[in-house]
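The following block was generated as part of the benchmark described in Methods. Ligand: magnesium ion.
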Amino acid sequence: MAETQNAPKPLPAPRDQHLRDMADCIRVLAMDAVQNSNSGHPGMPMGMADIATVLFSDFLRLDAADPHWPDRDRFIISNGHGSMILYALLYLTGYADMTIDDIKHFRQVDDPKTAGHPEYGHAAGIETTTGPLGQGIANSVGMALAERIMNATFGDTLVDHYTYVFCGDGCLMEGISHEAISLAGHLKLGKLMVLYDNNSVTIDGATSLAVSDDQTMRFRAAHWHVQEIDGHDTDAIRAAIVAAREVTDKPSMISCRTVIGFGFPTIAGTHKAHSDAPGEEEIAGARKLLGWTAPPFEIPEPLLSAWRRIGAKGVDLRMAWAARVEGAPDALRGEFERRIRGDLPEGWRGAIAAARTELLAGGDKDIATRRASGAVLNHLFDAIPELLGGSADLTPSNNTKATNEVEIKPGAYAGAYVHYGVREHGMAAAMNGIALHGGLIPYGGTFMTFSDYCRPSIRLAAMMKIRTVFVMTHDSIGLGEDGPTHQPIEHMAALRAIPHLAVFRPGDPIETAECWEAILDAPHRAALIALSRQTMPLLRRERDNQNRSAKGAYVLAEAQGGPRRLTLMSAGSELHLAVAARTILQQDGIPTAVVSMPCRLLFEEQDAAYKRQVMGDTPARVAVEAAVDMSWDRYLGFQGRFVGMHGYGASGKGADVFKKFDITVEAVVRAAHETLAAS
Ligand SMILES: Cc1ncc(C[n+]2csc(CCOP(=O)(O)OP(=O)(O)O)c2C)c(N)n1
Ligand SMILES: [Mg+2]
């Protein structure tokens, strides 16, 4: 009969029927949710269901009743398109946040808990936002590093957990995975385990279309422990995880050979299983092959109970941990709890005040904001031990290392400074993982022009609203001789365009201290601080410790001799040009104010009255910044003028480059007369 000729091959017999049935719960939820919403990716969840089942039933430390338990194992799906595997697992194990209704509303705008890709903050149990391939694996490196650093401070009794990450072919093709794998191997992160969905399929078809790497050799070369198994053989999965956990001085990668869309009768093993609703016929065929008779979104009772038991089995572990916390010496317990809450130590503002005093004492000696930042960090680190510094191989240039920050070394994690190596993207994503883990506040530096190399992770930090701090020095043509490749031009505008990212560009040493205070004050906001290579004068001399930068913009010098006729605006190292131009304009009898705008985002958050007071009523306005005008035009209007960059920079002494591009006091004065004439 034609029908039997076309009948799909039966599935390989399971090692353990119960585990297969458990895995099938994930499979049917994934395929039914995708079919129901007519959107999504069933292939990965169906392919990785057996791996997830073994990991959750035998290894993962979780207590669904307390998703934020600090010593839980972390579980990340870097191949975030397979989000349904995570949603299914959270529902099956009984996370209160994830209901069957949420699963039914997969990818619907009214229910972000089951968004297309996992989004941190929308449902407990989602450890990080993934979807841009490679980010999850790089976040996991940060999480695993944070675990070791916290362990070094608080000991095995309070911090001792694993980081498990699922990834696919796509994650391993992305460049960021190279940086992440290399860093993790170097740092000997033995409690990091990658389970690689080696299904040889991506969207376009077979992976052989585009890649022929031997992934196992690649990981071995980076000093990982590597195993290869059949990802549907539950005994092999279990044995491999056991073996991986025994290796404590290397991260582990288990290459799991799987069939994408395992269970689909016609599309399994092909790129057609990667995404999209498979259609009723394919679904019916899968039900038949899997021997699944329950209707969509109904998990038969014995199986659901078994999953719920998995979700609850960590309760004893958690209670034992809680008892250990209870029994810890008061000071240690208090410190641990404070850091997990994300509160800063009492009195930390004293460090800012001390930094201000030190910087004010510098008086008339010009200083670069990167140096001022280094001085601030010296004070801050002594007050805030959870600060975790680092740089992508530019420590002496970024001034990111506080004197008392001990370096972290492979296998020796009692420290607070990470040499991330020349891995900007990996650093940025790892910092996000560190912030997500909790207990530490990561900041890391590179040159501003290479913020482009970090941008995908900066964007995710902003989206997740986590306290990751990106330190970007050499923030304009003022860096000089390194020339146009190193001189940021459009970067300020591009970074200011990232929603929720607080971009700070302090204009003098005191503003630098104020910006750091504002950054640390916001536990739920990612921040970037742009700092100069070249020196600039101290513009702020008042001793009242009032943080003027915290409002984003303020009047640095009000107009004198009559109502304001002109507003000069600036940020960063060009602020002093505006101040000098004001002196000339005032002498010419033009009442002129200077507005400093170290953080546009914070200024936009102020009320209308404050904004109006700062910007003034006069339409005569000039903005000066050694960058493109894109983030200023909103404040300039048609009559305003901009002094800044309109193309790439040039190699030469910083001061000469400023002259070449006509970013000078004279240019500001000229522009002032033009805007006054036009107004
Ligand atoms: C940085 C990035 N580029 C492209 C995509 C779009 N994309 C989503 S899944 C995918 C293919 C991933 O292949 P694989 O990891 O093997 O997943 P599988 O098909 O096996 O589920 C691509 C290109 C993305 N999500 N992120
Ligand atoms: Mg694949």
